[in-house]
Amino acid sequence: MGDWVGFMRGLPNTDSLRAELHALWMGLKIALEQGLSPLMIDIDYEHVLKMLKHGNLTHNPIISECRYLMEQLGNPAIDHSYREQNQVADLLAKEGAKKEVFDKTQFFAVPPVFAND
Fold first, then answer.
1. Which domains does the chain have, with CATH numbers?
2. RNase H type-1 domain location, by residue (predicted)?
3. How far is CA 70 from the centre of its chain?
4. pLDDT tens by residue, 11-28
5. pTM of the model
């Protein structure tokens, strides 16, 4: 098992599917920029996995970008994990949704204090 890397960022006026897609895209982009490879990716929104495999006309631009980034990263495996198993990611998403400043990304090398309660 490798190092843990996390981030959060507020997204204005979005639903959970778009937030999950954006988080995947941003995480892949960060991994590529920082040379973080090999990767293990867990997603708690199973519909995103289906969209990555089969496509989706509505969200095709971001799905295509995620596929491209994944290819650049050596096609890392993406697994579905239930929200209960991925509580830190769920807490980061909830905390990010509270953010009033939407253009700031916070990075974490270890799970933040609020996620350790």
1. 10-99 (3.30.420.10)
2. 8-95
3. 12
4. 777 788 888 898 899 999
5. 0.78
40-86 tens-digit pLDDT? 888 878 889 999 999 888 899 999 999 999 999 999 988 887 666 56
- The tokens for 70 are 């994944």
CA distance 57 to 32: 26
Return the pLDDT at 85: 59
CA angle 42, 44, 113 (to 5 degrees): 75
Residue pair 6/105 in contact (Cβ under 8 Å)? The answer is: no
Whether 77 and 3 have beta carbons less than 8 Å apart is answered as: no
Closest by CA to 94, choosing from 5, 8, 24, is 8
Which residues sit opposite 42 in a β-bridge?
79
